[in-house]
Amino acid sequence: AQKVTQAQTEISVVEKEDVTLDCVYETRDTTYYLFWYKQPPSGELVFLIRRNSFDEQNEISGRYSWNFQKSTSSFNFTITASQVVDSAVYFCALSEDIIQGAQKLVFGQGTRLTINP
Amino acid sequence: DTEVTQTPKHLVMGMTNKKSLKCEQHMGHRAMYWYKQKAKKPPELMFVYSYEKLSINESVPSRFSPECPNSSLLNLHLHALQPEDSALYLCASSTRQGKSQPQHFGDGTRLSIL
Fold it and tell me: What confidence tens digit (pLDDT) does each residue in A72-110 have?
């Protein structure tokens, strides 16, 4: 069975600090996809990034960066110079095919990130 | 702005009421999903529609009745709900390319059962 673990339930830092959110996954698939979503207080889950199992390059997008390591089954997310607007719940997820044309997301429990001014 | 639109944003209803949640997307996605999310928990999958046909029902009680009138619309009909059904209900959609594609979520409907 597929599983995603986000061990950090809550993180609180002061603005401008760097912060890393951990994600560890389990899967027997050789081809798989990992996602990060952000959920601000408004409720919508905002897609941040997708990574497939064949691409181990790290990704950087502005203040956000992602470190994918197959050897440790981890897909960690770092925010550099955090800002108050980064405060949200962040979910790591693994997708699996369920039927033709549709997929199921296996979510971690989420990490609530609070950035204090 | 989200490309998946959900209405209403908030709903308060009694246990004997009948109401419906609506979800609309115009991205040409052929897979649509309903999720339930309780506070401090991840979303839980309820239903999956693929090509307007119900494909997955994750053992959801019959007081929740989904409907997909066309490829852009997804409804969730509610009847005789219980207080424990109070939650955020999220709709999502994805392309037909399966697990490689991200799901796009709406803002959700916050439902309170009195």
Answer: 999 999 999 999 999 999 999 999 887 776 788 999 999
- How far does the CA of residue A27 sit from the closest CA of chain B (Å)? 14
Cβ(B32)–Cβ(B23) below 8 Å: yes
Q: Nearest Cβ partner of B50 from A33, A95, A99?
A: A99
* Residue of chain B whose Cα is closest to the Cα of A50: B102
CA distance A44 to B94: 15
Cβ neighbours of residue A32 closer than 8 Å, sequence gap 6 or more: A2, A25, A52, A53, A94, A95, A96, B99
Contact A44 B107 (CB under 8 A): yes
String of b and e for A56-88 (b: at least 16 CB within 10 Å)? eeeeeeeebbbbbeeeebbbbbbbeebeeebbb
Put simply, the answer to whether A44 touches B88 (Cβ < 8 Å) is no
Closest residue by Cα to residue A92 from A22, A9, A31, A14: A22
Inter-chain Cβ pairs, chain A and chain B, closer than 8 A: 83
Mean pLDDT of chain B: 93
**Chain A: residue nearest B36 by CA?**
A43
